[in-house]
């Protein structure tokens, strides 16, 4: 199913500027040309005149096969998307009265997540009246931060949001 949308580049007769700057591999003398000369050169090579940079003065155009040009652009965008860093956020949940063994166990998980390059979102969840122990929750999160300071840096200090006290830790760069 093909969507008929307006092309993202002006090509051939849709270019409105009286003069254009020609660039590309198949042009001997790159420079500024009147539009009709540039169109004639493109016709002689049986290719399209594609406006690459419309905001330049004069607009930059390239003589190329338009479908091939679009293919290469999509390929470049796909490569850039693949190289982009994807941030993974792992969550670790504590209660305000988490005992020592549970704390150590969850801290080891946080260490593993930080070593793998993921951010850690540690939070203390307060149920019912346990909200009275928010100082205990904050102490717990700050203790976690000090235990993990060699692996990660605190991005967001403990902050109470509703019934959760949240802290973000991001991994240190290697």
Please explain how this structure is put together.
The chain is of the alpha/beta class and 174 residues long. Helices cover 33% and strands 29% of the residues. The chain has a four-stranded mixed β-sheet with strand order 2-1-4-3. Strand 7 (152-161) and strand 8 form a beta hairpin. The longest helix is centred in the middle third of the chain and has 18 residues, at 66-83.
Question: How do you describe this structure in short?
Answer:
The chain has 174 residues and is an alpha/beta fold. It has four helices and eight strands.
- In round numbers, the mean pLDDT is 83
Distance between the termini: 46 Å
SSE succession:
EEHEEHEHEHEE
| Poorly predicted parts | 1-5
What is the 3D shape? rod-shaped
Number of DSSP strand runs: 8
| Radius of gyration over C-alpha positions, nearest whole angstrom | 29 Å
In spatial order, strands of the major sheet run: 2-1-4-3
In helices, the fraction of residues equals 25-40%
Our count of helices gives: 4
Structural class: alpha/beta
How would a crystallographer describe the biggest sheet? 4 strands, mixed
Strand content: 25-35%
Describe this protein with a few key phrases.
4-stranded mixed sheet, rod-shaped, 4 helices, alpha/beta, single chain, 174 residues, 8 strands, disordered N terminus
